[in-house]
Design goal:
Elements: H1 8-11, H2 15-32, H3 37-49, H4 53-74, H5 81-96, H6 102-107, H7 113-127
Helix pairs in contact: 2-7, 3-7, 4-5
């Protein structure tokens, strides 16, 4: 389950963290290798609902920026520094694929959409979704 396409998140993640994320995905796939189609479908649906790194970063940035804005308006203008710090980090992630919270979130096991999709497609192959395309 090694990635062959460019994934900016993986490119900005320490190799040992990428290996751990890959190992965990391989472990999960192995656990489902002899599962029924119903069990595989259930896991595939779980993967559809899994939050990827982009979504987690967007939520984190918006909560911090909105909180800073609200506190800046209601308490002290000093709180406006919070959205002033957070929003450039979100911009940096959009442009470069990296921002300061990324290493922590990756170490916590938050995966990229490509990593989630890779596990999902492997499970679909185990379920037999692509068997009609065999040569």
């Amino acid at each position: 389950m090694t990635t062959h396409t460019h994934d900016r998140v993986r490119g900005h993640t320490a190799p040992e963290v990428n290996r751990r994320v890959d190992h965990e995905a391989q472990r999960r796939v192995a656990r489902y290798a002899n599962s029924t189609a119903k069990e595989l479908t259930s896991r595939i649906k779980e993967l559809d609902r899994e939050w990827d790194i982009e979504r987690v970063l967007e939520l984190n940035a918006s909560v911090l920026a909105f909180s800073g804005l609200c506190l800046g308006i209601t308490h002290s203008r000093k709180w406006l520094i919070l959205p002033g710090l957070v929003l450039p980090f979100l911009f940096q992630h959009a442009v470069e694929g990296w921002c300061p919270p990324l290493p922590l979130l990756r170490r916590l096991g938050v995966r990229s959409r490509k990593e989630i999709d890779r596990e999902q497609y492997t499970l679909k192959a185990l379920r037999g979704d692509f068997s009609e395309y065999e040569v």
